[in-house]
Amino acid sequence: MREDREKKYEGITTFKIGEVARKANVNKETVRYYEKRDLIPKPDRRRSGYRIFTQRHIDQLRFIKRAQELGFTLSEIKELLELRMDEGTTCNEIKAEAEKKYRDVVDKMNDLQQIKETLLELIDSCDKNGPIGECPILEALEGENETGRNLR
């Protein structure tokens, strides 16, 4: 543990960007990017110009990572963070966002299932010994396949 590098700023433990990145398991560029996108609060600066990060920044970075793992986009995460900071937000509003994301995931899974079936159909229709000019896979990618069905 690198507690010797942690500094106190107005009674609060502070960290340099590298330590924040390490503790949140992201790289420094990610911290900078999230700062630019207003996903994490702008840190104060020391007189030397160094940014002063706190545990709040680390917690917020971890929140962002977990939300990304669940499929939330950065725009959706920003909205969740704004809702989280609004004292008037209800749990039901957060639930609605999660339900919307769930529906998106189900739709994507259905799309992927359709893609999987279409690819298997194309693979099965291919006579690997035929001339390339009669390749049903290439024909399907150029337009409609022999069954007249569009790919999607």
Descriptive keywords:
152 residues, two-stranded antiparallel sheet, 57% helix, mainly alpha, 2 domains, two-stranded antiparallel ribbon, Multidrug-efflux Transporter Regulator, Chain: A, Domain 2
DSSP strand count: 4
What's the domain count? 2
User: How many DSSP H or I helices?
Assistant: 6
User: Residue share in helices?
Assistant: 55-70%
Rg, Cα atoms, Å: 25 Å
Structural class of the secondary elements? mainly alpha
Task: Using the 3D structure, state the CATH architecture of the largest domain.
Answer: Orthogonal Bundle
Please give the oligomerization state of what you see: single chain
| CATH fold name of the largest domain | Multidrug-efflux Transporter Regulator, Chain: A, Domain 2
Shape: elongated
As residue ranges, the low-confidence spans are none
Strands side by side in the biggest sheet: 1-2
Level-1 CATH class name of the largest domain: Mainly Alpha
Please report which band the strand proportion falls in: under 5%, 5-15%, 15-25%, 25-35%, 35-45% or over 45%: 5-15%
The average pLDDT is 88
User: What is the H/E order?
Assistant: EEHHEEHHHH
The biggest beta sheet reads: 2 strands, antiparallel
Distance between the termini: 53 Å
